[in-house]
Fold this protein.
Amino acid sequence: AQSVTQLGSHVSVSEGALVLLRCNYSSSVPPYLFWYVQYPNQGLQLLLKYTSAATLVKGINGFEAEFKKSETSFHLTKPSAHMSDAAEYFCAVSRTGLTGGGNKLTFGTGTQLKVEL
Amino acid sequence: NAGVTQTPKFRVLKTGQSMTLLCAQDMNHEYMYWYRQDPGMGLRLIHYSVGEGTTAKGEVPDGYNVSRLKKQNFLLGLESAAPSQTSVYFCASRAPTGVGGYTFGSGTRLTVV
């Protein structure tokens, strides 16, 4: 079974500051890892995904994440926060080797990002 | 616009009432999923379907039933609603090829009183 743990349910940064949202995974097989963003009253939108190619993954809106096997981590970063980044962010994991519908995503509990002036 | 459409967007039910949530996708995706989102718990999988006429249980299936009679539609039913089913429900779909890339609907906010 696989799981992800997101450290910090709430993170607050100043506009222009570095954004760092933490995600650690647990998986008995090499994982696929994802970050999703949810704006208020909306569904989830894919930010980026790691699928065993490059360990540094770039996503939309200037976000990136680095897969570190030794640390079992997939932290999300953005060099300079913008007010529009305020949202809830979810880390998710699925198994490699399974491409069918049964290869489901397992989500973390989410991190609410607040950006202050 | 192509995507996943959920109806209704909001609903208030009394304990014991029944209702059906509809999810429709126009992307010809094989796989569809129902999740519930609760504060501090992230998204938890209720049921999923890998194709027309098929359904399977997820992590929290009790109290829910589903049907996938048509490829584009995935229905989630509550036969006898309970306050514990107060939640935001999200439907998602995915194509067989590729990895991840779920497309989510905008959610249904359900309150059971």
